[in-house]
């Protein structure tokens, strides 16, 4: 694999990393991949493991999250599943499962971070630390909202995840898209890289090829419109731009406008089914 880009962990450790291009899969790989990844999540700045509303960025994240939660549930409902069994992998502080439960879903979740699990438990959502807890169980819907890029041993994890899916079930995966305009615009500073927590960086081609090996195919792809603005805001902050809000708004807007034509949104949701 050849060097694609040099970047750094802007949010926690400030360490330098590289992204290498896997041409066969059209995917970027973070290098090096630290053995003790847990240490890179132990920060108040890693907001998906907290319910923080301290800063303006925190408040904006939580506001957007609430809107996204409604969109996610609607997307799951639209799959016309026979049953309402749902497994959310990388469930964070459990808000998606709380909402799903209120809509009549039988929910289960996986979250390795202890602090996030504790916050979820306060919302009456009991999360398991490992996927192993569900081996032998089948779910009609499995969701990974910005989680696949975090998982080590990628092929093994995909195999384990797909084994938990009902034969006619639906797998829903949301990931950043390094082919988007905002990714190209910000380069080294693009917050969607989020190294080293993001070990892999996907394109449409890579998702198709990775899951094809496990008997899955992409049924449809949906955009995540808000991500272009939020990722651009973080990217502008990483660049040290005092006027990060107006700059991020225009970059995010342009990225979404470009994506109307090239379909390369900042983040994409892949809806996958078993091959017939």
From TrEMBL:
Keywords, in A-Z order: Methyltransferase, Transferase
Gene3D superfamilies: Vaccinia Virus protein VP39 (3.40.50.150)
GO BP, one annotated term: methylation
Pfam families for this protein: Methyltransf_23
MF (Gene Ontology): methyltransferase activity
Protein name: Class I SAM-dependent methyltransferase
Organism taxonomic ancestry: Bacteria, Pseudomonadati, Bacteroidota, Flavobacteriia, Flavobacteriales
